[in-house]
Design brief:
71 residues, mainly alpha, flat
Length: 71
């Protein structure tokens, strides 16, 4: 339980680094006239991933229960 806060901070840092790196990658690899479309596709997939992750996580909690505290 005490490791939750450092892991949460690490998760936030990784999220920021990932988003920055993928935005730079899109800007460097996609043609100039399609960069906005590339960023939009990224945003759509990130949004869909969050929605699906939430739904699947909720389903798993409903099916498996919430007793996985490790104690």
């Amino acid at each position: 339980p005490i490791f939750i806060f450092p892991l949460s901070a690490l998760n936030g840092l990784c999220f920021i680094v990932f988003n920055y790196v993928i935005a730079v990658y899109i800007n460097r690899t996609v043609a100039k006239e399609l960069r906005t479309t590339g960023q939009t596709v990224l945003a759509v997939f990130m949004g869909v991933g969050r929605i699906l992750g939430t739904l699947v996580g909720g389903f798993m909690i409903d099916q498996l229960g919430m007793n996985f505290t490790g104690i």
